[in-house]
Structures are given as structure tokens and as C-alpha cells.
Amino acid sequence: MGSLEGILTGFQVAFSVEGVLFVLIGVFVGTFIGMLPGLGPISAIAVMIPVTFGMDPTPALVMMAGVYYGAVFGGSTSSILLNAPGISGTVATSFDGYPMAQQGKAGKALAIAAISSFIGGTISVLLLMMLAPMLSSVAISFGPPAYFALMFLGLTAITSLSEGSTSKALISAVVGFMVVTIGIDAQTGTQRFTFGNANLLEGIDFLVIALGLFALAEVCTLIIKRKDLSLDNTHKLGSLKITKQEAKEMSGPVTRQSFMGFVLGVLPGAGATIASFIGYITEKRIAKKPDEFGKGSVRGLAAPEAANNAATSGAFVPLLSLGIPGSGTTAVLLGAFLVLGVQPGPLLMTDRPEIFWGIIASMYIGNVFLLILNLPLIPYISKILKIPRPLLISLVIMFSIIGVYAISFSTFDLYMLLLFGVVGFLMRLFSFPAPPFILAFILGGMMEQSFRQSLTISNGNYMIFVKEPISLTLLLIGLLSFAFPIIGHLRKRKG
Amino acid sequence: MLKTLNQKVSLVLLAIAAGYLLLSYQLPSYPYAIVDADVLPKGLGYLLVILVIALFFTKDSETEEQKARRNIPKKDILALLAVFAFVFFYIFLLEILGFVLTTALFIFFCSWFLGYKKHLTNIIVAVLFPLFMYFTFTEFLQISLPQGILPF
Amino acid sequence: MKKYLLMLLFVFLTVLAVACSNDETSNGDANGDWEPEQPIEIVAPAGAGGGWDTTARMAAKVFSEEGIIEEDIGVVNKPGGGGAVGWAYIAGHEGSAHNLFVASPPLILVPLNGQSEYGYDDFTPLANMIADYGAFAVREDAPWNDLNELFEDMKEDPESISVVGTSSPGSMDHIQFVQIAKAAGVDVTKIKYVTDPEGVGLTQLLNGSVEVFSTGVSETIEQVKAGTIKVLGVTAEERLEGEVLEEFPTAIEQGIDATFVNWRGFFGPPNMDEAAVKYYEAKFKELSDSEEFADIRSQYGWNEMYMDSEEYKSFLDEQNEEVQSLLDELGLGE
Predict the structure, then answer these.
(1) Is the pLDDT of residue A328 over 80?
(2) What are the boundaries of the signal sequence (chain C) (predicted)?
(3) Cβ contacts (< 8 Å) between B105 and chain C: which residues?
(4) Mind listing the domains of chain C with CATH numbers?
(5) Is residue B152 part of a domain?
(6) pLDDT at A287
């Protein structure tokens, strides 16, 4: 069966009454769960698996896919309104989304996020449809040296995430990197910095860091400013309308990051988090006014939202065409396929075209539904900001606590959350930026592991990093992007 | 000697770096590794030392706004500490009393403490919100939260 | 200052509530016919979606839906430390007859690697339910056609062959490979093992970064069907059943006398009441024999492997000894 015929079959499936109904259920449940504290796509999918028992596999999987990208879509809400990113893919969203909401433009921020997500989702589904059969070779093209180079490239962006002092940004990153070394080292099984505590063996969970450094640190600031009436415009929802000027500003970053996010999503192990960070950093680098980033920039909000949704579609490439789950989330999604007796892999496209193309085609509809669902909800959701300050503070704390508890089920992690809340607040007081910390935390672990995997494979020969074109290219770009700001900085000083 | 703020902060960070390095040197070695588990931590430790030394000799480059962040009235510091104490008790009692009861108590008292005067609204929110969350998680999502001493 | 009184009040009230709450653990009757008296909790010592979590949830589902156990059954996730956090939690419920957990080889491996205070012999084995086996895969165009050819090359030039698995050295993917390789006479200290914690070991195999992928059999089926990889051997005792699966040769039939079972079953806390053990043993047997659970097994590609408490205990002792000697030879573990 040719691709074109397959695509047609897919649309038939997706636009059947059953197809439309289950996409709708999927994205609705996904968005709802995605908005809940601490619950991201993984929990959303795991929760829905038992529901699909005994269902016909095609509508069931169309629904599960909807749950997945619906949860990513809905995840940005708490980042924007409360500075409390619930999943790693939406941390970068809070960098500009939260400041924008604080300026009384919460409605606009949510609308920009929803529209960027929609465009990112739609462009990437288009790419997925056209390129999925070909992209499977791209998905496996990255060996450990290339992953190392990719993480290195991401880390070089630290300097551009600083607000002022470069040395403070670097210190922040090094400490973030140190925190990620806590736990069992995967390459040797050695326990590092665990103090014999079983709770530390798997390392500190990302959510503990993100909610501590962002949400709880923000709570501290809110407590201090709780009587400051000048901040009252944060209660305002503001207009949802996006001006022509803003639409123009968005168009570049959204288009670029839809493509880039998709490609990064295709790589197993990279995924939405790395895509959103790299998207944010790239846009900051090439923006004419990089100073606006971090202060409620439209571009800074649109870029990571387009990127993380595009990466989500990208993740379907290795899953559907190779049967390789590229992340914890797609691994659970793979489980959902297996339960229904469908084995994703190289044969899926020819053996079960209705499933392969049906899922992809349904994602068009899913994205439209998500936009229709989310936009009218914005005024209601942003009512959260109208809650009186003292009550809001209590609720954000509770929100963070459930968020962490729902993934770790241990009070130990909650104490760690409190600790990182204090660390985050102190970092604010002494002007150490938090984004480099979290970036190093996210990229550092994989960077170290792929570095050491490479050297084990090459028996200690460092040439492995420059032998392949992919890793060599990425390393060179990384070096340049690291050197340029520093050279520029030095020049400015002289001048 | 310690005139600038950067210098004081540097010393604290230096202590962290030293502690981290000390622990790195105690990591057991693994017989088959080409790059062992201690290499990166040692590298990070020294890198932090270098950066901290650089910071020590850097002049403060903070903006006025950044400096103003540290001007916290004493009353607010006490309030912060009190909220941290609330959170600490919240965590401590979460698995003992259960999610619903602890959360309700926390929301009510923490909001009251921070100056929320509408007690009736406060009570309603403090009771309904945890109940809603609890049932959403345990019944709909099948994710168990601590039940504690309440019968459901 | 009035406000600080509020905090005192908060503390006082909560402490009062603690004081009023009675511990309601009750032990079973002394006579043989024990029945659960309160909801049963099954702990999955990992997060949602993994093998332990799935097994626990499926068991709980069939227990309730088929009315095998009347009392409510809740699955609780206690992730952390590769299981160690969940085991410590269960160990804290000594003697309770209402707290179970699901386990597999990590319950032996993790403590032997010095990563958990509690091991299999601290708990009460109830019943084993299913078994899974390991598979060693290479690329379709690789020069080796069976395990012996691979192991011959590993003996001659160990530096040229890397093995990838998802878990760290000393844990399942590593040990299953080492166990078979050792039986074939390979110097196990020279095996180059790479961990891919992101779970993309298959990618690394397909793009030629590594030569061998040590994994579970079910992960290989689809790729074998598509003709991208070939499975040189599986760790089962006899050939497995099922399409494609039946074509995988065992190590034993290639003259390598070694197996590795990825068993999965249920345990209770330390010193569980004998009557309760008997009760659960019977219930798990009923579960294992039920049609509904058979369906679930086939959906997930699990093999039936029921063992009662006693059989289970001696099986575990045997496994523990084997792994211990392997780790000693590798110079790993405590």
C-alpha cells in the first residue's frame, strides 16, 4: 500500500464518527490531567490504559495519542499562571509566560501559548505525515558521541540565560550539574553523594527542583510583597486579543521552532524538554532585542510552546516507525499499544495502515479541538489569579506538594522540595539566575552518560567525538556559540 | 577583608565546593570503567572553585532593582520563617493525618496567618479544595494519596 | 504577635488529631481460616507504567473483577532507589497481613549491589506468577549467527565488542549476559558493557554504535519480524511459544548450560502470619489459573510460572547464590 493510499485511509479513520469522538475524549482528558499539579503525559497515559481494555485498537490508540499531546498542551497553564511548571517540557514556558501574566496580561499569555502550541502541533503533524516513513533513519542516526555533542550544544547556551553577571550564571549551572550527579551512576552502579539514603539512589526528581526553584521561590517573593498594592494589576486577566504587532513577532519563532522542535523530538532521548530549551535559547540568540527575554517577551513564550508541542509529534516517529520509545512517556505509550495487541515497529505502517495513519491524521483534528477547548476556557482558568493573595499562596504551596507527592509518594521528596524552595529564594536574593541551574540539571545527566558511553565503546579513544560528521558539526557550533558571547563581552568592556 | 557581598557569597560557595570535592575523592572505584564515576564530580568541584575565585575578585554588578530585593523588613522575614514552619508541619503530618485533613488545616491557617480575613470563604475553600483534589486523584485517576485517619 | 498564636493553635490541633488517631493494625485469627479484614494494599516499588506497576494493577483488577478477593485492593506506588524505598516501606509493616508488594530479580540484585538494606530473605514470599526471559540481539548484517560465534570473537578480541543494556552494571541486563557468557567460557571481567539509561539501547544497536543488545525477549520480536536484527539466543530453559518467539534458539541448545529467568511474583512483609500466607497462596493460584489473567499474560507476552510460597523460597535461594558468585567474580557488590 502506497503512502498516499495510507494517508487517505488515515483520514477516513480520523474523520469517522468514532474517530472524532475518541480524539475529543482523548484531548479533553489529556488537557485536564495536564493542568493538574505534577501530572504530566506519563501519568495521563498510565491512568487511561485500563480504560482501553477490550476496545477496538484503532479508536483506543487515537484516544491515547490525544491524551499524550493533550497533556503537553495543557501543561503550560500552571507555568504561566503560577510559575509552577508541572512537567519538564514547560519550564522554559514560565521564563516569559509568568512575567507576562504578572504584568496583567495573563489572558494574552495563555492565548499566545495555546496558539503557538496549536501551530507547533499542526506543522509538526504535517511534517510527520510527509516524512514519517523517511525519518526513521534520522531517528537512529545519533550515537552516543552525537548525543554528547547535542547536550554540549545545549549547555553552551547558559551564558545567554544570565541576567547580568556571567560568572554567577556559570556558578548556577555548575551547581545544577552537581545536583544531577547525586544518585546511582548508570555506567558503574556506583552510589554518588547518596549518604546511604535509599531516597537519593535514583537522584533528585526534576519536579522537586523545578517546583522548588520556581514555584516556592516565587511564593517567598509573594509573601514579602503581599501587602504591596502596586502589584494589583496581576489580578487582571487582560485582553485575550493578540495584536497585529504581536502576531508578527510570534510568526518567526513559532515557525522556526515548529520545525526544530519536531526534529529534536524525533531523536530518542531528546524530546520536548530539550526542544523547548533549545527553542527558547535560539530565539533569544537571534532576537533583535534579547533583553526583552525573561521579562514577558512574546517571542520567549511562543518559542518553547511551539517547540514542545512539535517535539511531541516528533516523538511518534521512532515510536510508530521503529517501535523505539524515545522517552519515559512514549515507553508508557508503547505499553498502551501492547495492551491492545498492536506492536509498533517497522511493520506497523504496512500491516496496520489504519492505525499508523489513523493516529497521525487524528492529530490534526486533535490540535483543532485543543485550540477550541482551551481558548474559551482561558477566562475561567485565569480566575485563579483573582484569588486573594494569602489564599493563593496557600494554594500554590499545596499545588506543589501534591505535584511532588503524586510522582514520588514520599515525604522525603517533599522535604527536598522545601529545601530547594529555600535555595531558590536565596538564589534570587543574591542574583544567581535559576534557568542555568535547571538547564544544567536537565542536560547534564545525559551529557555525562553519553560522554562515558562513547569512551567505553571507543576503548578510551577521544577521536570518536570528531570522527562522525554529526557530532563534529554539533561540537563546532557549540564551541562557536560559547565563544561568541564571551568575545563580544570582552570587546564591549574594552570599548 | 570581606568587604563586598560577592566575597561573602564566594566563601559560602567555596565551602560547598570543598565539601563536594571531599566526597568526590571518597567515591569507590569501579574496575572496568574507562572514565570512572568520580571524574566528572571532581571536574565540577574544581570548576566551581575556579568560578568562585573569579567571583571573589569581581565587583558587584547588580542593578539597583536586584539590590533592593535584599531589603526585606524584619517582619516579613519572620512571616517567611513562619510559613516555612507551616509547610514543614504540613509535610510532617501529611502521611499521619492524611491528605484531606492536613491540607484543610494548612490552607485555613496559612491563609489566615497571611492576613486573609474572610473566615467563612476560607473554611469553605479549605474543606472543598482538598476534598476535590483527593477524589480526583484517588477515584478518577487511581493515584492514591495518604488516607490518614479519615474513613475514606 | 497574635498571629504566632495562630501557628501554635495549628500545631496544637494537628498534634491533638494525631493523638486521637489509633493505630488500627489487626492480626489475623490464630485458626487457619484467615480472611482479610481491611482493604489490601499492593505496593509497586516503582512509578506508574513500569513492569511492577502493570503487574500489580492487573492482578488487583482481576482479583476484584472476578470476585476472587472481596476486600478492596489498592495499588500504591513507592518509587525510588530501584525498589529500595518501597522495600523499606514494606519492611516497616512487619507482621501485617494487608500489605503486599510485587517483585522481580532486582529484589535479589539490588541488595547484592549494596543498594538496599532489605533483601528477598527479609520478606515473606507468597507466590510467583509469571516469567520473562532475556534475549541477546545483534544487527541483521552482523557476522555472528549464533552465540558461540559471538563468544569466540569475544574471547579473541574483547575490545571490539560492546554490549548495551538499559540498567547499570550488576543489574538485570548486565547479569543475564554475564551469566550466559561465563558458562560459554568468556572472561567476564573483559566484557565491555555500556548502560543506556534513556532506554535507547535498541537505537544504539541499529546505528552501529554497539554490537550486542541485552534485553527482554518481547522487545526484540517486532525488529526481528522487520528483519533489522537477529536474536542469537534467549535465556530460557526451553524454546518459547508463539510466532517468531519459537524461532529463537536457547543458550542451552547451543551447548551453553545456563539460563536466566526474569521472574515476577508477590511478597508480604517480614513475619507474615502463616494463615495469611496460605490464604494468599490459594488466591494467587486462582488468579494464575483464571482465564482473565491468561488473557493479560498473552497481551503482555508474559509466560505462566506459578510457584507457591515454599517453592518460591528455595528458587530464590538458588538464584541468590548464582548471582552472588557472579558478582564476586566480577568484583562487584558488597
Answers:
(1) no
(2) 1-19
(3) 10, 13-14
(4) 38-131+262-330 (3.40.190.150), 143-259 (3.40.190.10)
(5) no
(6) 87
Nearest CA in chain C to B89: C11
Cα dist from B116 to A236, A387, A388, C79, C105, whole Å:
20, 11, 8, 38, 54
Nearest CA in chain A to C161: A457
CA distance C296 to C310: 26
Q: What is the pLDDT of residues C214-223, one digit of tens each?
A: 999 988 888 8
Do B86 and B114 share a structural domain?
A: yes
Which of A211, A259, A241 shows the shortest CA–CA distance to A94? A211
* Shortest alpha-carbon distance between residue A317 and chain C (Å): 13
Residues A255-283, mean pLDDT to the nearest whole number? 89
Best of A49, A167, A172, A229 to mutate (most B CBs within 10 Å, chain B): A167
List the single range of A326-330, A398-402, A463-467, B126-130 with lowest mean pLDDT.
A326-330
Whether B33 is in a domain gets the answer yes
Reading the block at residue C62, the C-alpha cell is: 482481576
Q: Are residues B51 and B18 in the same domain?
A: yes
Q: Look at residue C256 in the predicted model and tell me its pLDDT.
A: 95
DSSP label at C32? S
Nearest to B101 among C17, C48, C169 (CB): C17
Neighbours of chain A (3+ CB pairs under 8 A): B, C
Q: Which of A222-226, C6-10, C29-33, C117-121 is least confident?
A: C29-33
| Cβ contact A431–B62 (<8 Å) | yes
Q: Between chains, do A405 and B136 touch, taking CB under 8 Å as contact?
A: no
Q: State whether C11 and B89 contact (CB < 8 Å).
A: yes
Q: What integer pLDDT is reported at residue A232 of this predicted model? A: 56
- How high is the pLDDT of residue B127? 94
Nearest to C76 among A50, A139, A409 (CB): A409
A463 touching C (Cβ < 8 Å): no
Q: Per-residue pLDDT for C29 more than 70?
A: no
User: Are residues B42 and B99 both part of a single domain?
Assistant: no
Cα distance from A366 to chain C (closest Cα, Å)?
A: 24
Tell me how many domains chain A contains.
1
**Average pLDDT across chain A, whole number:** 88
pTM here is 0.86
Residues B81, B64, single domain; the answer is no
Tell me the per-residue pLDDT of C59-110, one tens digit each, with 9 for 90 and over.
999 999 999 999 989 888 888 888 898 999 999 999 999 999 999 999 999 9
Residue C18 has pLDDT above 70, yes or no: no
Residues in CB range of A257: below 8 A, 6 or more apart: A120, A275, A279, A282, A283, A302, A303, A304, A306, A307, A310
Q: Which of residues 179-218 of A touch C (CB under 8 A)?
A: 184-189, 191, 198-202
Which A residues in the span 284-343 are in contact with C, Cβ-Cβ below 8 Å?
Answer: 318, 322-328, 331-332, 335, 338-339, 341, 343
Residue B13 lies in domain = 5-68
Q: How confident is the model at residue A57 (pLDDT cuts 50, 70, 90)?
A: very high
Task: Tell me the CA end-to-end span of chain A in Å, nearest whole number.
Answer: 66
Domain count, chain B: 2
Residues of C in contact with A140 (CB under 8 A): 203, 206-207
Q: CA quadruple B135, B138, B143, B147: dihedral positive or negative? A: positive
| ipTM score of complex | 0.94
Distance CA C229, CA C141 (A): 8
Of the three residues B68, B85, B110, the one that is the final residue of a domain is B68
Domain end (from B68, B83, B103): B68
Answer yes or no: do B64 and B99 share one domain.
Answer: no
User: Would you state the pLDDT for residue A456?
Assistant: 92
Question: Which among A42, A345, A453 is the nearest to C194, CB-wise?
Answer: A453
Domain range enclosing A263: 3-494
Burial per residue of B13-24, b for 16 or more beta-carbon CB atoms within 10 angstroms, e otherwise:
bbeebeebbeeb
Is B147 part of a structural domain of the chain?
no
| Strand-pair partners of C139 | C229
| Residue B89 sits at the chain A interface (C-beta within 8 Å) | no
Residue B149 lies in a domain: no
Chains B and C: how many Cβ contacts under 8 Å? 50
Q: What is the mean pLDDT of chain C?
A: 88
Chain B's closest residue to C331, CA to CA, is B31
